[in-house]
Amino acid sequence: MRQLLWGVASAANQIEGAYDVDGKGLSTADVLPGAKDRHKYIFNPKEMIDKSFDYYPSYKGVDFYHRYKEDIALYAELGITCYRMSIAWSRIFPKGDEVTPNEAGLSFYDDVFDECLKFGIEPIVTLSHFEVPLHLVKQYNGWADKRLIAFFERYCKVVFERYRDKVKYWLTFNEVNSATKLHFHSGATIPEKDTNLEELGYQLLHNQAVAASKANKLCHEICPKAKIGCMVQYSPVYPYSAHPEDVLEANNFERDRELFALDLFVKGKYPFYSKRLFKEKNINLDITQEELSLLVEFPADFISFSYYMSLSYGRKEIITELTNGNIFSGLKNPHLQSSEWGWQIDPVGLRFALNRLYELYQVPLFIVENGIGVTEELMDGTVDDDYRIEYLRQHIEQLEEAVSDGVDVIGYCMWAGTDLISNSTGEMRKRYGLIYVDTDDNGNGTYNRYKKKSYYWYQAFINDYLTREK
User: Fold this and answer.
1) Calpha distance 148→144 (Å, rounded)
2) Secondary structure of residue 43 in the 3-state scheme
3) Tens of pLDDT, residues 300-329
4) Which of 16, 249, 369, 427 is catalytic?
5) Domains in the chain, ordered, with CATH?
6) Which of 20, 141, 160, 454 is the most buried (most CB within 10 A)?
7) Tens digit of pLDDT for each residue in 180-223?
8) What's the pTM?
9) What is the pairing mode between strands 435-437 and 409-415?
10) How far apart are CA 107 and CA 143, in angstroms?
């Protein structure tokens, strides 16, 4: 049985800031407005992309770009053994289609990785975490254009060669199953009027799957000791009742939103039910035999996933009160409590998720996001976040139960190390971190860091785990 990695997680566009520093180009994340405007425009990017807003959260993030040594020192004190982070593609290739990379961007991540390794922290690196150079949207319409596959491959080759001695775990795309629904946010694409949106979503997913297979191939060639995985948002889907149609609807819901992508990225082939699905939805994809062969030959080495909640689903006629969620929502489960943002809290669901995914795919699993967002205030230099401690304790207990069940788990990264900009809402007040960052929804504040009570709990837990495992 492997010794688990324990860490924290973040994304470049939510923490780095310095959006135009040292040659970085604009990315898709850099045009997303702050909380008061985001919901209006996030699903209408055609209006948003050239509009000026009062505040862009990614411009400042939490200033990790200038404070990474301070943050990594805090992580070292915390005792973590891994840090899941991402590279901003637009720092390496500001426009995305250049031939020569930006040396200043490469040097920045050299420094970040070196700082992590100095403290024995393993970098877990996502290549594209809801961040694509904006030029690729304006010039090519993002992942709708297969030319992005070659641009992504070039980017991967550069970073694999540069960091092959520093990074042992790579992830291709963040929550890649969202590409079928979030065409701009995940697929960097602005749909044209009268587009078959479902067809577009599956084409985006296909193109990213091909790009991921090419990245997998490159990684194995350039970094033979490294592993490269896919990353999905996964929430187990419970039938709303024992009614046979509820069971069938829940099964179809899980297939559509989660398992379809995993079949492509891990099994390397389209699921058996895709023929009927595409026929009924009038979906015709641009797929070549060469691409299908590539998917089979170079699948992901492991599955990484975010887990925040479970979902419930059933017959259309009983769909009344829906819950909020991370990408997808479902029916309100009366047996579960919800967070302040309506995300249902289900620790046992994590054990179920781990067993379900391992049973279906038989590859190692890595939980790279799990946490709770709460409105918090700094009091006397700290936050007494007992609710976060209880959330982490209950989820980690279920993770350990899954390991005892026989599931092969690489590690666990809680979301997040420091507070950061919420991806879904563009807010700072939705705080996830073990470390409080003094800034608000409009970027006001000192940006100073303060340890929360949960920081010390997680520190003690990791120390106890590592002591037990020696």
Assistant:
1) 8
2) coil
3) 999 999 999 999 888 877 766 666 655 566
4) 369
5) 5-469 (3.20.20.80)
6) 454
7) 999 999 999 999 888 999 999 999 999 999 999 999 999 999 99
8) 0.95
9) unpaired
10) 27
